[in-house]
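Worked problem 6 (solution included).
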Amino acid sequence: MKARDYLWCAANLLLDGEEELARLCPACREEAEEERCPVCGARRPDWGENPGFDAERFREMGGEGS
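Solution. The predicted structure is:
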């Protein structure tokens, strides 16, 4: 496949997703667009803080846009 073929496939995947969302009622569309855990289905706001995240180490590695 050529680069343009990959682009064509990606564009059509996006359009297919938009068409599927357009078929849903507003309540179902909102629920479908929520970011959820792929394993248990919990909504993102319910995840809470990541206990394994080390903010100090993040700053040391220059992760604050420096």
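Discussion: The first helix runs from residue 3 to 22.
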